[in-house]
Design brief:
six-stranded parallel β-sheet; 181 residues; Rossmann fold; 10 strands; single chain; two-stranded antiparallel sheet; globular; alpha/beta
Length: 181
């Protein structure tokens, strides 16, 4: 439930939202996403959190990050850590939970509604704290993927759960394959 006169902020866990949309078979159109939430209330900020590999010449996320910075999003990035698992597979780790939580707590006195794009149960305490400050919290994620992406605890803590699959026709576009089609 959104109210036209309420101020709201978006907190997008980039890796989590990407994984959820991919599991549902679509990509997010970030221009449409921002427009949709501007329609739902007075959008004050739209944060996007991403960990980036600094030593790579080209990162597949770089064009998105560049586009977002010029199109109304506040980008919060940090260097990702690269390591190899016990089977020799390359792994990249770059959790952004602390950065997101700090921004949400700083903005809490200035907003009525926070929209968290993540299904990560680690955010339960953040949501609880925001709610104690009078901020309503909506969580956008999915339970319709083959492996649900939103934790039960997070869904219970949120004031509102928005199934990402129900936003597909509003903010989605088909997944493009490598040759651009």
């Amino acid at each position: 439930m959104f109210y036209k006169d309420e101020t709201l902020a978006l907190f997008i866990d980039g890796a989590n939202l990407y994984s959820a949309a991919k599991a549902l078979g679509f990509e997010i159109d970030y221009k449409l996403l921002r427009q949709e939430f501007m329609r739902r209330g007075k959008l004050t900020r739209a944060f996007y959190y991403a960990a980036l590999l600094e030593n790579e010449e080209f990162s597949p996320i770089r064009p998105l990050v560049d586009w977002l910075t010029y199109n109304g999003y506040n980008l919060v990035t940090k260097a990702a850590k690269e390591h190899f698992d016990s089977e020799g597979r390359r792994r990249v780790k770059g959790n952004m939970e602390i950065e997101l939580a700090v921004n949400a707590m700083e903005l809490a006195p200035h907003i009525d509604h926070a929209v968290l794009f993540s299904g990560d149960g680690d955010y339960c305490r953040l949501i609880e704290s925001l709610q104690r400050q009078g901020v309503r919290v909506s969580v956008v994620s999915t339970i319709r993927s083959s492996k649900p992406m939103a934790s039960d605890e997070l869904r219970r803590q949120a004031d509102n759960f928005i199934e990402l699959d129900e936003l597909r026709d509003i903010i989605g576009r088909p997944i493009r394959n490598q040759n651009g089609s």
